[in-house]
Amino acid sequence: MECGTAVIGKRSIRRFAALVGVLLLYGARPAAAADHLVLIASVNAPVSSLNSLEIQKLFLGLTVVTNGIDLHPLRNESDEAMRQLFYQDVVSMSEPVYERRLLALTLQQGRTAPPVYRDTRALLNALAADPHAVSYAWASDIARDGRVRILKLLGRE
Amino acid sequence: MGMTKYARRRAVVAILAGLLCAGVAYADDMDGYDHVHAGSHPSSEFVLFASLEGHEFSAPASANQLNEDANAIGDAVFAINRGRFRLFGEYQLSDEEHDLERFQVGMEVVPDTVVWIGRFHQPASAWNTEHHHGRYLQTAITRPSIELWEDEQGTIPQHLSGMLVDSRRPLGANAGIQLALGVGLGTVIESTGLSEFDLLDPHTNGRRMSYTGRIAFLPDYVGTSNLGLLFAHSDMPVRDAPTAALLRATDVRQDLYGAYTDWNHGPWQLHAAIYDVSMDLEGPGAFHSESFVAGYAQLERQLPHRLTAYAREENSSDAGSSVYVRVNHPDFQLRRATLGLRWDFHRRQALTAEWARGVSVRENQDAIRLQWSAALP
User: Going by fewer Cβ within 10 Å, which terminus of chain A is more open, N or C?
Assistant: First the structure.
C-alpha cells in the first residue's frame, strides 16, 4: 500500500507539475499581451505627477514646468502598439493630426518636436541621464530598471 | 564703413547660411540622441515647405510679380531651442522672389510667453498667423486677397521689424487665452505696392513705427480652435513721387479692427475673418479719409480617402471706391468664390485642385490651379 501510494503520488506530482507548467505558459501570454503603458522619469527627477493637459502639452513640445524645472519629453516608438497607444491615450489625436500640429507649432511658435527613440534601452539610458526628461514605456520593460520610476498609468495594450 | 550694399548683403546671407547649417548640424547631432544634457537640452527643427503649381487664368495675370502665382516655391524654416532661448528663421525662395520672411530671437520669460526681437509676421492677420508661408499647412492653394503679403499687392502690412510678445495663459481646466502684441518698423508705399523692412537690405529712412495685436479665446488650450479680435495701426510714408501724386498723399495712416475664428468640429473646419480698414491719406494741402470692409469664410470638410473639400467666399464693401486700393492694389479681389479639393497622400504631401472666379478693380477673372505641396523631410 505504501509503495502503491508512493507511485500514485509521483504520478500526481507529475500531472500537477505539467498542469502548472501549462497554466504558467498559458497565463504568461495574456500577461505579456496586456502590458501597461506607463509615464516614467528618472528616480532623481523632481516631478512627482502630471495631469492629462500637462502630458499633452509636454508631448506637443510646449513648455511644462514642475518645481521650477522645464521638463524634456522623449518619445518612445520602439513598437507599433506603443505608437498607437501614444496617439490614442497620451496626446489624444490621430497620427496625421499630431504630425500636422507639430509642424504648425514649429511654424507658428518656433517650437521643436520631442526627440524620438526607437529602442527602449537607449531611451532608458537617456532618461536616467537627464532628471528633467519624461517618457513612457511598457511596465514590463522597466520592471527591473532601478534608474527610473513610474509617474502614471497611461493605458493598456 | 566702406562696406558696399552688396558686400553687406553677402555678409548677412553668409551669416544666415551659417545659422541654417548650424540648425541642420544640431538636427544631425540629435539624431543619435547621445547628447541629452540636463538643464540645457538643445533641440532643433528644420522643415522645407515646398510647392509646385500650374495655373490657367481667363484674363492676363497681374503686371506685377505675384508670388502667390509662382510656379515653384521653397520655404525653409529652422528653429533652435536651448532652454528658454529661441532662434527662428524662415527664408522663402521662388521663381518670382527670394526673401528672408522672418528672423527672430526669442526668450520664453515664463511658460508660453515669448518675447521676440526681429522681423515677424504681425499678429493681426488671422490667416497668416495660422499658416505663415507654409503652403502645405493651408488647405487651399490661394490665400484670401485681404491676407496677401506686401509683395503680392497686399493691402495690409504683414511684416514688422521690432518686438513681439506672444503669450498664452490657461483659463479654467482646459481653455486658454492668447494675447499677442507687436511693435516695430513698418512698411512704406512704393510704386509696386507696400514695401516692408528688409533685414538683408536695411533702409530705415522714413519708416515709422507700427502697432499690432490680437486677443483670442482658445476653447482647448492645446487644440487648434480659436476666435479673437485683431487690431493694427500702420503709418506708411509714400516714397514714390508718381504714386504720391496719384494718391494725393505723402503719408497713409491705416487703422485695422477685425474679428476672426478658426474652428474645428469633427470633420468640419471653418476659417473666417472680417476686417474694417480705415485710412487717412495726407499730403501737402490735401487730406482724405476712406474706409472699406473685407472678409472671407472658408469651410472645409474632411472626406474618406484623405480627401478634403473646401469652399471659400470673399467679399468686401467700399473697397472698389477706395483710392488706396484703386491706385496701389488694382488686383485686390473685391469678390471671389473659390472651390477646391485636396488629397493628402504619402507622408506630408498633398495634391490640390482649385477653381476660383473673382472680381478686382482691374478685371474679372476665372482661375484654375493645380498644386503639389509638401513639408520635407
Answer: N
Whether A28 is in a domain gets the answer no
The CATH number covering residue B319 comes to 2.40.160.10
pLDDT value of residue B358: 92
Minimal Cβ distance to B33: which of A100, A112, A115: A115
B129 lies in which domain range?
5-376
What count of Cα atoms within 13 Å lies in the side-chain half-sphere of residue B122? 30
CA distance B137 to chain A (A): 7
Mean pLDDT of chain B: 85
Number of domains in chain B: 1
CB-CB neighbors (< 8 A) of B300 in chain A: none
Give the one of A60, A65, A129 whose C-beta lies nearest to B36's C-beta: A129
Q: What pLDDT was estimated at residue B92?
A: 87
Q: Which residues of A touch B134 (CB under 8 A)?
A: 103-104, 107
Is A141 part of any domain?
yes
Task: Please give the residue of chain B at the shortest CA–CA distance from A42.
Answer: B38
* Structural domain boundaries, residue A139: 35-153
CB contacts < 8 Å between A and B, how many? 91
Q: Which of 65-94 (A) contact B at CB < 8 A?
A: 65, 70, 72, 74
Q: CA A92, CA A155: separation in Å to the nearest integer?
A: 12
Q: Is residue A75 part of a domain?
A: yes
**Number of domains present in the structure of chain A:** 1
B287 three-class SS:
strand
pLDDT digits over B288-324, tens only? 999 999 999 999 999 999 999 999 999 999 998 999 9
Residue A27 domain-assigned? no
Mind listing the pLDDT tens digit for each residue in B132-158? 888 899 999 999 999 998 888 889 999
Predicted pLDDT at A19: 53
Identify the DSSP state of A88: I
The whole-angstrom separation of Cα B67 and Cα B81 is 30
CB contact under 8 A, B132 and A108: yes
Count of CB atoms situated within 10 Å of the CB of A78? 18
Q: Which residue of B has its CA nearest to A122?
A: B33
Q: Is B192 within 8 Å of B243 (Cβ atoms)?
A: no
* Percentage of chain B lying above the pLDDT 90 cut: 55
- pLDDT above 80 for A105: yes
